[in-house]
Design brief:
Blueprint lengths: L2 H9 L6 H5 L26 E5 L2 E4 H17 L7 H25 L5 H14 L4 H10 L4 H22 L7 H14 L6 E10 L6 H19 L4 H8 L10 E6 L5 H7 L11 E2 L3 E11 L7 E12 L7 H16 L5 H8 L10 E5 L6 H8 L10 E3 L2 E14 L2 H30 L3 E3 L5
Antiparallel strand pairs: 1-2, 1-11, 3-4, 3-6, 5-6, 7-8, 7-10, 9-10
Helix pairs in contact: 1-5, 3-4, 4-7, 4-15, 8-15
């Protein structure tokens, strides 16, 4: 496995886009290629310079390594094989742009300190679901020195910081721009194409039911609605009491265009906010209790937001506790919890060094962006009920357990922030190529032919 593959697996990002991706943006102009290196025998043994970038060389071997990696990726994805000569030109241009940007970063003083490098290295290990010593062992086994790996990682972080610093002023999104985007989308959307997701509880009414039976069934439906409005879980209530075939799915009818719902359902829920319940309605099948789970217009962000409930134990390294000792202590806690020898909440109350200790480490329900990136990435890598490995953030060393996940209706502010992220990404896609080409145009680049 190559250095770039480790970086791609660990960071899960395009080259140099760590912080921007955490802001909801992606740079697509210079992707890290997620492929093994070509066999040594496939490269020419005699190396030579193919380009000079402000006195720094790019070698034929560097170029061919990247070309072979792209070709392997294309083959794995079963895409048509491109013209190799054209691909070489594209890859060489990308290498030139990266070299120019790294040189500019050095010139204006963009630096990556050791702490940031260590955190990124830990993230690579964590995203590969291994610890740092195991990552180092695998690198050595693959013939990659730790020094070389850290150098590549530092370059990626440097590129990221440079692009963030240079492009950030161009990515501001005003409230007026958000309003205009929302207005444009609302006029472009065909009402019939709007997406709606409902859940229902059906109290079936037999065809030959008497008035007394209908009244009894209506009272039953009203009682179920009252229970749902009082806070009972709608999914559990549907599984318990619904007469519909969708009861096993908690009554969920699926996200579908409005036109694919009965008009009775559409009319009954038209004024009902997401997450709320409509009054009981009557159809030929019986009495329906409807809950609006989601509304979405094509081109607009989701009307729901994913939330995670997580708890943690935090140890803060200091004079009396080294970081390595904190990691080992939390690893021991993890072993004891998994073996059933200790309770997470009890350990948190006894040992965690933050305000959540009194609640057994419970941090409550969180929305994306609430926690620092290193915490959030570790959290997102876990399934509900899963206990993670110890990891380090800027606040200390954590042991976390994801308890639950749910989708809730997004607030107006959350929806506007999602639109802001979309518009920032659009601006980035426009600004990055212009900036990169301008920087490249100010550099001295000499292309060289292969020696005879």
């Amino acid at each position: 496995m190559t250095i770039r593959r480790y970086l791609a697996l660990g960071l899960g990002l395009c080259a140099g886009t760590l912080a921007l991706a955490q802001e909801g943006l992606r740079l697509t102009a210079t992707p890290t290629l997620n492929l093994p290196a070509p066999p040594v025998g496939s490269l020419r043994q005699a190396d030579y310079i193919v380009a000079i970038v402000n006195s720094e060389p790019i070698t034929h071997q560097e170029l061919q390594t990247e070309v072979q990696r792209q070709l392997q990726q294309i083959a794995q994805q079963r895409q048509p094989r491109p013209d190799v000569a054209s691909l070489q030109k594209q890859v060489l241009e990308r290498l030139i742009q990266e070299r120019v940007q790294l040189q500019w970063a050095r010139e204006i003083g963009v630096r990556v300190d050791e702490k940031s490098l260590e955190q990124a290295e830990q993230m690579v290990a964590r995203q590969n679901q291994i610890d740092l010593p195991e990552l180092h062992r695998r690198l050595v086994a693959d013939g990659i020195s730790l020094e070389r790996f850290r150098s590549q990682l530092r370059e990626q972080l440097t590129l990221n910081r440079l692009r963030e610093r240079e492009l950030e002023p161009r990515l501001k999104v005003s409230e007026l721009e958000i309003d205009q985007y929302l207005q444009e989308q609302s006029t472009l959307v065909d009402p019939a194409s709007r997406l709606l997701q409902l859940a229902q509880i059906l109290v079936a009414v037999p065809d030959e039911a008497s008035d007394a039976q209908v009244a009894t069934l209506k009272a039953r439906a009203d009682g179920l609605l009252a229970r749902a409005r009082a806070g009972e879980d709608f999914t559990a209530l549907a599984r318990e009491a619904s007469d519909a075939q969708d009861r096993a799915a908690g009554g969920q009818l699926g996200l579908r265009p409005v036109g694919r719902y009965p008009q009775l359902f559409v009319d009954a829920t038209a004024a009902v906010p997401v997450g709320q319940l409509a009054p009981v309605i009557r159809s030929g099948a019986g009495f329906h209790i409807l809950k609006v789970l989601e509304r979405r217009d094509p081109g607009l962000p989701d009307a729901t937001v994913a939330q995670t409930r997580v708890r943690h134990i935090l140890l803060r390294p200091g004079p009396q506790l080294s970081e390595a000792a904190a990691v080992e202590q939390l690893a021991d806690f993890r072993r004891r919890i998994l073996a059933g020898q200790a309770d997470f909440a009890a350990l948190a109350r006894a040992h965690s060094q933050d305000g959540s200790a009194a609640q057994g480490g419970d941090l409550g329900w969180s929305t994306p962006g609430l926690f620092v990136p290193e915490f959030e990435q570790a959290m997102e890598a876990l399934a509900p009920g899963q206990l993670g490995e110890p990891f380090t953030s800027r606040f200390g060393v954590h042991l976390i357990e994801v308890q639950e996940r749910r989708s809730v209706a997004a607030t107006q502010r959350e929806q506007r922030e999602a639109v802001r992220a979309q518009l920032r990404e659009r601006k980035l896609a426009q600004a990055y190529p212009v900036w990169a080409q301008d920087l490249r145009g100010r550099a001295y680049v000499e292309l060289r032919e292969a020696p005879p």
